[in-house]
Design a protein that fits this description.
Layout: H1 11-21, H2 31-55
Length: about 80
């Protein structure tokens, strides 16, 4: 695509694009990439799952008014004597 119009090609951009497209050819697992992979594929999804599992069925937004509690099971009102 480059070189057929009025736009000037920037060699630095072309070099960066070539490097970006060929990164899979030179990729190797080392301690840094292994840690990033474990965090991205195991720890982060597990934390999202734990958070959503903890909060599931806890809140009810349907038909609530300003002064009503969003909790499905509202806390019992304190009895004062």
């Amino acid at each position: 695509m480059a070189g057929h119009g009025y736009t000037k090609t920037d060699p630095a951009v072309e070099r960066w694009n070539t490097m970006r497209e060929a990164v899979y050819k030179h990729f190797r697992f080392n301690s840094r990439t292994a840690r990033q992979s474990i965090l991205g594929m195991i720890v982060f999804p597990l934390s999202i799952f734990a958070l959503s599992y903890n909060q599931d069925m806890r809140w009810d937004w349907t038909g609530k008014r300003k002064s009503e509690s969003l909790a499905r099971v509202a806390a019992a009102p304190e009895e004062s004597d």
